[in-house]
Amino acid sequence: MTVTVYSKPACVQCDATTRTLTARGVAFDIIDLTEDDAAMEAVQSMGYRQVPVVVAGDDHWAGFRPDKIGALG
Questions:
Q1: Residue 51 and residue 63: Cα distance in Å, rounded?
Q2: Over the stretch 33-56, which tens digit does the pLDDT of each residue have?
Q3: Are 70 and 23 contacting, i.e. CB atoms less than 8 angstroms apart?
Q4: Which of 6, 25, 32, 73 has the smallest number of Cβ neighbours within 10 A?
């Protein structure tokens, strides 16, 4: 399963999300929304207005969600 974290610099919840994914051994890609306009549009089209936005297979969510991360592995 591909896991992508859409993030912004200096985002506490983004840092917590990526640290937890790393600690659980979940591989992920990170995309900085301040540098990728197309990714920003994609995240907004999913209805999200906050970061991080995590897309894991068919599932996606916003914010630091240890429960969702725990379900990944």
A1: 6
A2: 999 999 999 999 999 999 999 999
A3: no
A4: 25
**Number of separate domains in the chain:** 1
| 8 Å CB contact between 55 and 47 | no
Instruction: Copy the structure tokens of residue 66.
Output: 């240890």
CA–CA separation, 6 vs 3, rounded Å? Answer: 10
DSSP letter for 26, please.
Answer: -
- CATH number of the domain residue 19 falls in: 3.40.30.10
Chain-wide mean pLDDT for the chain?
A: 96
CA 36 to chain centre: 14
Distance of alpha carbon 17 from alpha carbon 42, whole angstroms: 20
Residues in contact with 27: Cβ distance below 8 Å, sequence separation at least 6, in sequence order? 3
Q: What is the pLDDT of residue 1?
A: 86
